[in-house]
Design a protein that fits this description.
Length: 103
């Protein structure tokens, strides 16, 4: 009787799962580490053309200062529970969940 060795198949499966898990964690880490500075335009700068915070402002003063945002692959893939319940979401456009069918 011949003994079947499943160790290599199990090892390959384990490596694949581990690799997928690491890739997802790496994306989450990139999303977390990027910070949100300069990812939105400064309201004050847009309204009056200047900002009291100057160079220290966390918001972009013009399109050229805007940084791209890395979003998690599941960003806005599910509906917001607040909106589904008929309530106003306190996060508004910054909410990580969909507020309409077109988002």
């Amino acid at each position: 009787m011949k003994k079947i060795n499943n160790n290599s198949a199990n090892l390959q499966l384990g490596v694949q799962v581990s690799s997928d898990w690491r890739r997802e964690k790496a994306i989450e880490l990139d999303v977390y580490n990027q910070g949100m500075a300069k990812t939105e335009l400064c309201d004050t700068w847009e309204e009056i053309g200047s900002c009291p915070y100057g160079e220290h402002c966390q918001f972009a003063h013009g399109i050229t200062e805007l940084r791209p945002v890395i979003r998690h692959p599941r960003y806005k893939t599910q509906a917001c529970r607040m909106v589904l319940a008929g309530q106003i979401c306190p996060y508004g456009h910054r909410c990580h969940f969909r507020h309409s069918l077109t988002e």
